[in-house]
Each structure stands twice: as C-alpha cells, then as structure tokens.
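ok trying again, last paste got cut off:
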Amino acid sequence: MIELTDKEKRFLKRVETITHFPWADKVAAADAKGKAMRLSRATFQRLKNDGIIVRSASDLTSNTYVVTSVPVTPEVKEVLDAS
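nice, full thing came through this time. structure:
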C-alpha cells in the first residue's frame, strides 16, 4: 500500500513537471507557473518506483516526468481529484 505524507500530497497537487538529470543525479521540479519546487532524490525514486510519476519525455541529458493521470491507489486518486 502506498502511503503519502502530507508534504507529498501538497507537492503532487502543485507540481507540473519533474526533470531528472541522470548524468549529474539531480532532480528539478516546477509548478504550472514555472516556479521551482523542492524534491529530494529519494522521494523522486519512491514516487517513480510506486508508479505515481511517469516519464513523459526524454532527451540526451534529461528525462521529464509528470504525475500519472491514472490513480494508483485511492489516496493518489484523492490528490489528483483535488488538483
């Protein structure tokens, strides 16, 4: 069962895109207005492994992820419905 913290729920409601730079192992996130958001590599990996975020684009130096439109659990569905 996937358990989301309150911080993760708020993050998923606001985030628009997440960019991972594998060559530097850096993660950058932005909301719909382009404002930078904080996301740790550990949280990024957990969200990716749980299927909450999925890769939407890829190029030579980075991968772009978005929140999946199909809810993985009822808790994730609640977050998606609120955003």
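cool. The mean pLDDT is 88. The CA atoms of residues 7 and 13 lie 10 Å apart.
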